[in-house]
Structure formats: structure tokens, C-alpha cells
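Changelog note: in this version the structure field was regenerated for every chain. One regenerated record is shown below for reference.
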Amino acid sequence: MHARLTITVVLDLDGTLLDVRPRHFECHRRVMATLGLQPLSSTLYWRRKRCGLPTHRVLGLGIGDRLCRSYDRAFIESIEHPELLSLDAPLPGIIDWLRRVSSLDAQLIVATARRDYGVTAAQVNNLGLSPDRLVICDSERPKQQGVQSITRSRPAAWIGDTEVDMAAAQAIGARAIGVSSGLRNESVLRAAGAEVVSRSLAGVQLETLSRTSTRDCPE
């Protein structure tokens, strides 16, 4: 029986709740083909992507700034296409983890860098998740701006898979908890200020959400 907590839990969606790697790689493959370029292998793409490399280093030598800009623009325009979103699936163990969180005195916020609120809300509902707030933060609206006014009355923990999530957590004074199940590896998350890094959301212990220590979550 877990002690009841009074806390706000902010959850990133892509890479934290959902396995988005098939979608991201398929988007990469399609965009490269559209630009007349040879797609990377899945292994090489993720090795570079998870290290947080900029586009020109992900794509490799010989790819100029113009092509990189075209790639980035096409990727953003395509990544939320319904056909690609259908490739997403819940990460292992997260349904049970969400059930356990529901037993706590916790305000739950899902914050994601998406553009389509309706489609995103449908994916969240398909997880059986009813957050207190769903915050859409596109590239023009930093994540912390969409969340900080909600978290002022409670301590907060922010769980995500990228350096953007870790920066947002620090900006609002929340605990920064990283999961390496998504777009970035443990080294990137720690360098970005993650206090705790787990391989997945399922490995984040509920007690960790309110602890002041910085010990790693057990795997």
C-alpha cells in the first residue's frame, strides 16, 4: 500500500507513454526518399538520434544546410500524419504504472510537443488515461509555459525522454526524471539535468516522485 502523495506528475507522451520509434524511423525513411536521399539504416539512425545530434550529423557528411532545413520542415509536417501515428503503441508496463499512479493524491498532466489536440487527445484516451490536463506545446510554445501555471500549488515531478523535458522540469522547479525508452539515451538525459534516469516509465518507483534524493530508479 503506497502512502498517498500530494504532487503534480507531468508526463511526456511520445517516448514516455508511447513507443514512437517505428513512427519516427518510418517518417525518416519517407522524407529521405522524397528528398532523393538514401535513408539510414534503423540501427544507425537511432544510434545518432538518441545521442541528440543535430540533423546534419544525424544524416551524415555531405548533407548541406539547405537539405537539412528541407528535411526538418518535411519531418515536422509529416510526423503527425494519421497513417504514421497508427504505428504508435503503449510502451510495456505503462498501463499498470498508470493504474498505480491513479491511487495517489496526484494531479496528472500530459504535456507534449504536438500540434493536433484532437488526435493527441484520442491517443491519450486510448491508453485509458484521463489526465487532469492535456497540454499541447508546439515548437513556438516552450513546454514549461504550458505547464508552469498549473503546478504552482504543489510540488511536481516531470517525466520525459528528451533534454527538452529535463529543461522544462528545471524551469518550473519540478523534479526532472528521465526515461531512456524514447528519443534520447541516458547520457543525454543526465547531461540535461535529469536527477533520476530509468529505462522506462514502468521502472519509475512511485516513491521517487516525491523523494528529494537523486538515486537511480531500480530497473
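Spot check on this record: Residues 111 and 135 are 5 Å apart (CA to CA). The longest strand covers residues 106-112.
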